[in-house]
Amino acid sequence: MKKSMKLQSKIILLVIAVVFVSITIIISFVASWMTRNIENEARINIMNVAKLVAHSSEVIEALEEQTPDENLAFFINRQLENLELVDYIIVADKDGIRYSHPNQNMIGKRFEGGDEYRVINTGETYISEATGTLGKSLRAFTPVYDSEQKNEIGFVSVGALIKRVEVAKHTAILYIILIGIGGLLAGVIGAFLLANNIKHTLLGLEPEEITRLYNEKMGILDAIHEGLVAVDKMGMITLMNDSTFHILKLQSFAYKEEMMGQSLENIIPNTGLLHVLDTGKAELDDEQRLNNTVIVMNRIPIIHQGEVVGAIASIRDKTEVIKMAEELTGAKKMAWSLRAQNHEFMNKLHTISGLIQLNEYEEALQFISEVAKVRSNISNILAQNMKDRFLSALLLAKYNKAEEARVKLRIDKASKLANLPQNMTSQEIVSIVGNLIENALDAVKNDGTGEILVKILEDDQFLNIQVKDNGCGILPEYREKVFEQGFSTKEGQRGHGMYIVKRIIDEFNGNIKFDTKNGVSWNIQIPM
Fold this sequence. Notes:
Largest sheet: 5 strands, antiparallel
Low-confidence stretches: none
Structural class: alpha+beta
Radius of gyration: 54 Å
CATH class of the largest domain: Alpha Beta
CATH superfamily of the largest domain: PAS domain
Number of helices: 14
CATH topology of the largest domain: Beta-Lactamase
Transmembrane segments: 12-34, 172-195
GO molecular function, one term: phosphorelay sensor kinase activity
Subcellular location: Cell membrane
GO cellular component, one term: plasma membrane
Enzyme class: transferase
Helix content: 40-55%
């Protein structure tokens, strides 16, 4: 297989070719303009000199006296010393007899070239190209008039040899070519520097290798089960894999490529990535709800040379995990409830056995009736009014735990829950109620006087939850801190319960209030 040319070589050759063609075109135009300019300059120069000499008093006096003298020769020579591209100045009378010439032997002889008749006959001023005694030249003719400016008495011819004009042209072209060669050399050096810089920027990789690595990277990203989203410092999406597309249910876009370059907040609001761009600090394992999907997100800033240039987030779908956790939690709570029931009923069976052995049959029947009635009430409320099996399991488990701890946990008979608020999961309602009851169990006394009332009531607009206890309450200095993460008045790794409750309620635009009169009464209202 034929090996393709390297990118560095392509760039060098391309830049050299572009520079060479550009310089060639420029040289062509500049050389053409310069040669024309030199010839025009020579023409203007010799004509100006001819007019100047024709009006000089030395020339007029010599022609009026009809005798060439030393003053005329001195004047002409002095003019030639200070002029460029002027090779000779010839003064002649109306008959074409020379009064001055670079060659002294030609003075007094007739003017040669045949192009002088126009100035002699008509007094015309003009420039012609002809061959004289000095060779082929550009010649400017202008008439000379007497001191009264009435009669033509001769003419002046100022010439520039063609070979000198050509030399000037060639010299100018040579300078242009040398400048062009210098430009081409600079272009070649620049091509090498540019190619090396691009190669360094691309880590020495060829386009084919970059394409392959890009395809591999996108394949790897799309194969990752977690979602990945990256933004630049302006909050515009620069990367998104397929998992993000599916986890967040972005079906409104046919292809994820449509989202590239768009504002992240317009596509996925409230991700927290813009906050990371502002602070430059990573945020790990943050649980939140996006597009009605519970996710766990890690947000990390991308820092280059001490400046935040972007941010990247990994997204884990917690919905499936929550479903599994709900099944597992329900099973565990049911098992714990059965163990608690077993323990409590063993105590009750021992009580009944003692009453029978003491021949207290009426008291035994009454005790059995009271226990059956309480159990029947709890079972009826949970079975008939609470349609969420996980919440029912939780309440039953907490009831048994309270009984074992000698705490009266009552579930209001008016409690009723047929449907959860929109998009709320069983795990979330269980977290709210479970944490509130657990805090109440910690707050009340275990001497038989502790009481907890739970009321859960659903109407058309709101889900209302009330958990009330007669415990020790909340001290005034702690009331502003109860929802802070990590805050607790108890020892151990605690302080997350009320923070989780508040976060879930805020996610569903609900509100939570508490009253500390005769214990604590928690009142929660969540829109349906």
